[in-house]
Design goal:
Distance between the termini: 35 Å
Order of helices and strands: EEEEHEEEEHEEHEEEEHEHEHEHEHEHEE
CATH architecture of the largest domain: 3-Layer(aba) Sandwich
Shape: globular
CATH topology of the largest domain: Rossmann fold
Largest sheet: 8 strands, mixed
Oligomer: single chain
Strand content: 25-35%
Number of domains: 3
CATH superfamily of the largest domain: Vaccinia Virus protein VP39
Number of helices: 9
Radius of gyration: 22 Å
Length: 408
């Protein structure tokens, strides 16, 4: 398998990438496109199943592009993710990682997502795109969603062409819906939202967003608990991890890798509402959290104040600007934590390295950008320490990886 939806086969010495397969499968496939070094095929018929193939639970597979590994037994998924991570680190850095125990399995492989973001077509149907296509696969349920999606489907039908995507976020036993509009919400949109909140007791609140415009109806706050005793309140449309159980394991591991000590200076970049900042501050660290999202920073400040954590400060600023500013101010953190988006943070690597923190903990959901960025840190005097993976996204190829970088 690849870090993606494809299985790897070979035909006449050429690599062939085929989706919707499992390791060991023998399939009849049709070549759909050819490049110089490889070809892409679609499976036509399964001739013999590999030992780890299973029947997907989702009735929309293999058409739906949402879960690209659901046809693989879950224990095998975890093993494959470990092997791929080992291969990437070995190829890029010559580091030999032990695949045994490298990836922490999820407690549940279905109904684990506390937030689900769905596409909407012009008729108001909701779903995911087909693999490699913009065609929508309309769905009435989702096997990996931990929240029902029918209320979101009703809102999408009402908004129709005005809404591009809709997100369902768990809020205790209720949910918050976030509608991403192609233009600022009008009075009709707001009336639709208010009516849904009044008639469907499962819906606590609705947020309608169009660029910088944000309209809130009802109660759009959610709570997340990165560790026991640390409850973060934030807007449902602010970033939070989709897998709450795995996030607790990740936070515990990052805190352990970081060796957070009382009165040590910690810089948390892409901090959001404080997923790592607040646990570090609870351990007595002097934390500076940075994020571009002003509403997330406001939530982080409010949570810190509610918890009585006065040794933490939060700054709304682009992370790259912050690293440069702190270097000029001769700020020297003992630790830098960063959890950037999937695109990574290559533009920050030089600035972060110049801060000369003894340790950097880099959390990533994309192995390609992680390896790229770690390579930049290695060139600037860091070496790889411990590596820990977490399966936040069962039944997909995605994996969350935390890497400790140590200044040499």
């Amino acid at each position: 398998m690849t870090y993606g939806p494809f299985g790897v086969a070979h035909l006449n010495g050429k690599t062939v990438l085929t989706p919707n397969v499992a390791p060991g499968d023998q399939v009849e496939a049709e070549i759909t496109s050819t490049r110089r070094d490889y070809a892409v095929a679609r499976p036509v018929r399964l001739l013999r199943a590999g030992v780890d193939r299973r029947e997907p639970r989702c009735r929309y597979l293999p058409t739906c592009g949402g879960c690209d590994w659901q046809q693989i037994e879950y224990s095998a998924q975890v093993g494959i993710k470990a092997e791929l991570t080992v291969a990437e680190f070995g190829r890029a850095f010559g580091v030999e990682l032990d695949p045994i125990g490298l990836i922490e399995p999820a407690d549940a492989e279905f109904a684990y997502r506390s937030r689900v973001r769905l596409k909407i077509d012009r008729e108001g149907a909701i779903g995911y795109h087909e693999l490699g296509s913009n065609r929508l696969v309309a769905i009435a349920d989702c096997a990996v969603a931990g929240v029902p999606i029918d209320a979101a489907a009703g809102l999408a039908r009402e908004l129709r062409k005005g809404c591009d995507e809709i997100e369902i976020v768990a809020a205790g036993v209720r949910q918050v819906l976030i509608a991403y509009l192609g233009r600022p919400p009008i009075a009709r949109d707001l009336a639709i939202g208010r009516r849904l909140i009044e008639t469907d007791q499962r819906v606590a609140g609705i947020v309608m967003r169009a660029g910088a415009v944000r309209k809130v109806m009802g109660d759009a706050l959610i709570t997340v608990e990165p560790e026991v005793g640390c409850t973060i309140e934030a807007g449902a449309d602010q970033f939070s991890q989709v897998n709450a159980a795995q996030n607790k394991k990740l936070v515990a591991k990052v805190m352990a890798l970081a060796g957070v000590a009382k009165d040590s200076a910690v810089l948390d970049l892409f901090c959001g509402a404080g997923n790592f900042s607040l646990p570090a501050a609870r351990r007595g660290a002097l934390v500076t959290g940075v994020d571009t999202d002003e509403s997330a920073i406001a939530a982080a400040r409010a949570n810190a104040a509610r918890m009585g954590l006065h040794q933490v400060q939060f700054v709304a600023m682009a992370a790259a600007e912050t690293a440069q500013f702190l270097r000029r101010a001769k700020y020297r953190p003992a630790l830098v934590i960063l959890d950037p988006p999937r695109t990574g943070a290559i533009a920050l690597m030089e600035g972060i390295a110049k801060l000369a923190a003894r340790r950097i903990i880099y959390v990533s959901c994309d192995i390609a950008t992680l390896v790229r960025d770690l390579g930049a840190l290695i060139k600037r005097g860091y070496r790889i320490g411990q590596v820990a993976g977490f399966d936040f996204f069962p039944n997909t190829h995605h994996v969350e990886v935390a890497t400790e970088m140590v200044l040499t």
